[in-house]
Amino acid sequence: MLPIQNNIGLYTDHYELTMAQGYFLSNRHLKRASFDYFFRKNPYKGSYVVFSGLSSLLEMIEAFHFSPEDCDYLLSIGFQSSFVDYLRTFRFQGNIHAVREGELVFPYEPTLRVEGTILETQLIETLLLNVLNFESLIATKASRIRLAAGDRILMEFGLRRAQGLGGVHASKAAVSGGFNSTSNVFSAYYFDLESSGTMAHSWIQSFDDELEAFRTYAKHYPDECTLLVDTYDTLKSGIPNAITVARELHQQGHELAAVRLDSGDLTYLSKKARRLLDDAGLQHVKIVASNQLDEIIIQSLLSQGAPIDIFGVGTSLAAGKEDAALDGVYKLAHFDGTPSIKVSENIAKMTLPGIKAIHRFVDQDGLFGADGISFADEPDYEFIHHPTDPHKQKEISKYTKESLIQEAMHDGKNILSKQTPAEVAQYTQKRLKQLTEEHKRFLNPHVYKVGISEKLQQNRNDLAKQYLKKDLF
Amino acid sequence: MLPIQNNIGLYTDHYELTMAQGYFLSNRHLKRASFDYFFRKNPYKGSYVVFSGLSSLLEMIEAFHFSPEDCDYLLSIGFQSSFVDYLRTFRFQGNIHAVREGELVFPYEPTLRVEGTILETQLIETLLLNVLNFESLIATKASRIRLAAGDRILMEFGLRRAQGLGGVHASKAAVSGGFNSTSNVFSAYYFDLESSGTMAHSWIQSFDDELEAFRTYAKHYPDECTLLVDTYDTLKSGIPNAITVARELHQQGHELAAVRLDSGDLTYLSKKARRLLDDAGLQHVKIVASNQLDEIIIQSLLSQGAPIDIFGVGTSLAAGKEDAALDGVYKLAHFDGTPSIKVSENIAKMTLPGIKAIHRFVDQDGLFGADGISFADEPDYEFIHHPTDPHKQKEISKYTKESLIQEAMHDGKNILSKQTPAEVAQYTQKRLKQLTEEHKRFLNPHVYKVGISEKLQQNRNDLAKQYLKKDLF
């Protein structure tokens, strides 16, 4: 049954191990390296990412080791015994600096930096990308749905369509991105989330008629009764039966909590259902809607005045549709005391050298103005430069400067204080309020400005020249 | 560290548990039920799905239980002690019939059927959907990439962009769908796959120059040396340095295995690289290509004559892009001795009642002609009827009839013989040869015919009439 925690050393790409063995056999493995995590493209055609997965990652890195079983396996597939012996006692002992979990971040920002020996920094690459890319993808989606839904209640329903065991962290990231609860009981248990859920169509079908099904449910759940009303005919059967049960509950001193619509035109049905409920004096009964929802559909429903109080969102959230993946990468930025870059025929794909910091420049209203990337040991800078267009720069001296990078792991030990997903969500919601509306628009959002310091620009250009001396065009 | 196997009873949607408790408290929990698994829409705009995940599912169902820890948690969130006590010794003891792992299946076919008490059949719903939907999504993608790549070697590289722990089963499903190997060492270990991988750009960057990086790698891996040639300049630096190392290896009695292209125009670069290698007498050095590949891009590269021998495919495979999810559902079809349906305002979403079988009608050349769905205890039928259009039918008496459904679990015990993903892949490849080309086309493939028997059609219509007696339009 997938004992990942027993074999976590194997949770990596094969090439991390061939490289690690190569470093080890050529006695280069203790040279110091620094890698950056960053992504190039916002998901969902949006303008930002909610950086997520840091706490999961630190936990997994602390646990990262090679069991005797792992070592036997590596020997069996051809790794050399001197290297495997080194792995037997291997633990990651490097340092990690990162932005806070739940921070809003933007393309090309080195949001997380790993420093240590080349062997240890290389070995954790796959694990790191796997965790950060996915949780950030889902938290970002959740934050968009939260933007669309305003203060309404949001329930995550996606485990059945999640990507296998990916559903475990999907539910966590959904809550840290702004959802109120999840249907996923395992994740609720493991990450201290609220779980929720009531009935499927099969409950209704297993009774002779809908009213009996509703009554039986209400009998056992009188104070938390949400009735699914679309099994046969929402307006002619489901809602009238729900009203009957609501009245019976009321006579017994309870109140029906909600009805759930799971098919049909949700604007049309929610308006009609609201009217029927209100006419029956059931103004307190809430309307839950589900069925292939996402932020765009929720925005459309609400703009048409659909009186929906609670949304259940499944597939598009838990699987991060339409993107399915965040393209985050992990690139060597400093090696053996020297800044390093990967050049490219495309300047936009050239990496930024050295040990870097990120600053956020906030205006007097508390709104984000722009971000700057500089060397970590660089003094204040007055301008940020467009990363690829040498003609564009922006003065940032009138803004208040926030430092975004903090140490998260020191000598292999997680030094962050533990936060629940709900606490992370609070921070993200606060930060989203500091991002101007035009960056939060779903359709063609305004691009958020991220620039680099002059010193960093100069250093990158100097390094690039060393490599790009041949005729490249 | 995510001890899923210790808390597998919680790996479910909350509503499965509220319904299970409701059945239990109303003493209906031992009534017999039968649920069908099926999907409505092919992923990737294709015409078929590779049914996958059966062995994973059976393993998880056999392990499914509620630990003391799980029970404490359920009590803490409000479940009643009599119900939780029932769960303490709960084990799934029902029967499962399904098509073979790796079978080609089509929309609306009940590819898997679960029979047992309503409580046990309901409780495993989420787990079942989570596993089957995801592995089928990925195996289907892999099969499409295999169709595009012909006999070339395919390596799965996606763990870094996979949906968290979803990567574990993604790699397995990639191989059962037709890939030769994976980069994911954990999955290779756990599922007995071949893992592969050599070097990243960081390996090259960590040396003073590319040639030294290549030489060092070749020294440690003289017989399995694939050199990544695009760190600085593929044609002016990477390939010439690879040729130098190939000659040095040859003098030492070894041969360079391959070069890998990971950026730029892969047709242009592979043609130029092939020419340079051939001119150097290195016809045996293979060309590996990677970088955002999928079946459409591979088909395009090969149609332009790109001399690529090996493809590495990551994100689009491991995350099942562009769909990210298969929409498989689990619907009650028989309850307490009686066929059951969920009606709908849309006839295409109405379920098929009863305990059913699937037959494949194969022509004299061994090609698939059509599939039929009937009651399991129904004698031979001569016509299949379009499931929603009453005017369309097809005679199938001239075809050879194959029964697709077999028993996979009996009284809660897995009764299938164990198969490796490579064995499953062989079956899928054999079946793909029986599917005509027009169904395998990527652009607007021909829809494969799936019909229902007259008896099934009649029964469904009769049941529907009972519910749809009111004015529905």
Question: Which structural traits does this protein have?
Answer:
homodimer, 473 residues, alpha/beta, nicotinate phosphoribosyltransferase, TIM Barrel, 2 domains, seven-stranded antiparallel β-sheet, six-stranded parallel β-sheet, 21 strands, globular
Outline the secondary-structure elements.
The structure is a homodimer of 473-residue chains.
Chain A: H1 14-25, E1 32-38, E2 49-50, H2 54-63, H3 68-76, H4 81-88, E3 95-98, E4 104-105, E5 112-117, H5 118-123, H6 125-149, E6 153-156, H7 166-176, E7 181-182, H8 185-191, H9 201-205, H10 210-220, E8 226-228, H11 234-251, E9 258-261, H12 266-279, E10 286-289, H13 295-303, E11 310-313, H14 315-318, E12 329-335, E13 338-339, E14 356-362, E15 368-375, E16 383-385, E17 393-395, E18 400-403, E19 406-410, E20 413-414, H15 421-433, H16 437-440, E21 450-452, H17 454-467
EC number (chains A, B): 6.3.4.21
GO biological process, one term (chains A, B): NAD+ biosynthetic process via the salvage pathway
Pfam family, one (chains A, B): NAPRTase
Largest chain interface and its two residue counts? A-B, 112 and 112 residues
> What's the CATH C level of the largest domain in chain A?
Alpha Beta
Could you name the ranges of chain A where pLDDT drops below 50 across 5 or more consecutive residues? none
Strand order of the largest sheet of chain A: 13-12-1-5-3-19-20
Give the % helix of chain A.
Answer: 25-40%
Enzyme class (chains A, B): ligase
Protein name (chains A, B): Nicotinate phosphoribosyltransferase
GO molecular function, one term (chains A, B): nicotinate phosphoribosyltransferase activity
Catalytic activity (chains A, B): 5-phospho-alpha-D-ribose 1-diphosphate + nicotinate + ATP + H2O = nicotinate beta-D-ribonucleotide + ADP + phosphate + diphosphate
